[in-house]
Specification:
The chain is mainly alpha-helical. It has a single domain, classed as Na+/H+ antiporter like fold (Up-down Bundle). It has 17 helices and no strands. Helix 4 packs across helix 11, helix 6 packs antiparallel against helix 7 and helix 8 packs antiparallel against helix 9. It is globular and about 55 Å long.
Length: 433
């Protein structure tokens, strides 16, 4: 009973902090910084490293807030992928994504592995464990922020081939990242548990991926049915959040049960399941507008809660030790983005003017990157929180530098039309990230 009471008190304190965080976020926008930076800043101040309003042991009790928010972010990311609008630029989008993944993932992973001797939590690790951590970090470095990109597009009323390509790459990359992360999470789990890499392991990974896709498809059908019902929008929103939370509970149940019964961990990727589920109602039903409206309305409080809790969970003592590493990763990622976007655009036959500036459009990170970092923190409690702090510091740098660079790129492309209203993307996604 005492534990339940303590959790309730912590939750009430967190709600009050989140309300303050919302106001701080809006203050940050007045000095041309993203809302998410304000949320993270408030969480850091309220967390155990500074004021202690949210104590260190409260994070686990608020895990459900994390998981509900993660599911929501994945649903929203899936709903952003509208195939009809991306079809005309599909060749360019495909080549840029392929080139970026082939450059950013290996270069980012290699950088982490080379620097592992300078990262405190990786010092006692074996070579296999260091490879595991490097693979997870490399996958997260590929992630983008669709909501941030769409917010900039809305602000500048941007429209044209450059904008379409950037949005397509940004949105589809997040699906690629979650698949990539899911595969690497399975490999990392095997490396950490010293499992053999044989045909059985390959079959296991393929089975996990197919199972996640199948469950995502089934969940998407349930969401379609739910959206079609004549229910109050608040009830629909609550059901969607509850379904997302159930996916995380189910994933954890399968992982622990398979470990106990089979001595092998079956990892169903909850973010991939939710992203696939969000894709179907947005593309294969007549209720796309209703579906997007739910995310538009529910987005601000969800994002506020998630990023505030993320800030409160940051381990500042570890963060101060890994800032040089974060700066190195940030710099390597910028170089990799330039190489990937330029070479991808070159292969696709895009304008040279666009190829030279497109890298500036892909720097920003937020929702999915933070979600994956937080997922690692929960999945690997012995070193995950320190890993998350390091990766979040990289994401913060990208989130601060990225939006201004994207604005500059759009203006250089000649597709900014701030005096006109482009209905193509306006109002579809809340500009909170």
């Amino acid at each position: 009973m005492e534990s339940t009471h303590d959790t309730f008190v912590v939750f009430v304190a967190f709600v009050l902090v989140a309300l303050i965080s919302k106001q701080v976020g809006h203050l940050f926008t007045k000095i041309k910084l993203p809302l998410v930076t304000g949320f993270l800043f408030t969480g850091i101040l309220a967390g155990p490293s500074v004021m202690g309003l949210i104590p260190e042991n409260a994070t686990e009790g608020l895990r459900f807030v994390d998981e509900i928010s993660l599911a929501f972010i994945a649903f929203a990311a899936g709903s952003e992928l509208h195939m009809k609008k991306l079809r005309d630029r599909f060749k360019s989008i495909t080549w840029v994504i392929i080139a970026q993944v082939l450059v950013i993932f290996p270069l980012g992973s290699l950088t982490i592995f080379i620097l592992s001797g300078f990262i405190p939590f990786m010092l006692p690790m074996s070579t296999g464990s260091r490879i595991a951590v490097s693979l997870l970090a490399g996958a997260i470095l590929v992630a983008r922020s669709p909501s941030s990109a769409i917010a900039v597009v809305n602000e500048l009323r941007s429209k044209g081939p450059f904008t379409q390509t950037v949005l397509g790459v940004t949105v589809i990359t997040d699906i690629v990242v979650i698949v990539l992360f899911g595969l690497n999470a399975s490999i990392a789990d095997a490396l950490l548990l010293d499992l053999d890499f044989n045909i059985g392991f390959i079959i296991l990974i393929a089975g996990e991926l197919l199972a996640s896709l199948g469950i995502g498809y089934g969940l998407g059908k349930i969401l379609q049915y739910l959206i079609a019902k004549h229910l109050n929008r608040s009830i629909k929103t609550g059901c969607i959040l509850f379904l997302g939370y159930l996916i995380f509970l189910f994933s954890n149940f399968v992982r622990h049960t398979s470990h106990d019964l089979l001595n092998v961990e079956i990892l169903l990727e909850p973010l991939l399941i939710c992203m696939i589920a969000g894709f179907f109602p947005a593309n294969y039903s007549k209720y796309r507008h209703e579906f997007l409206t739910i995310f538009y309305k529910a987005g601000p409080p969800i994002y506020t809660a998630f990023f505030t809790l993320t800030g409160a969970s940051l381990m500042l003592d570890h963060l101060t030790k890994t800032w040089p590493i974060a700066l190195a990763l940030f710099s390597v990622r910028l170089v990799a983005i330039f190489i990937g976007s330029f070479s991808g655009g070159l292969i696709a036959g895009d304008k040279m003017q666009h190829n030279k500036i497109s890298w500036m459009s892909y720097v920003t990170q937020a929702g999915i990157g933070l979600a994956l970092a937080r997922e690692v923190a929960g999945a690997f409690p012995s070193w995950g929180p320190e890993f998350a702090s390091m990766m979040i510091s990289v994401i913060i740098l990208n989130q601060i530098v990225g939006p201004p660079l994207f604005k500059w790129a759009i203006k250089l492309s000649g597709e900014a039309h701030p005096e006109a209203l482009s209905p193509q993307f306006a109002g579809k996604i809340p500009p909170t990230l």
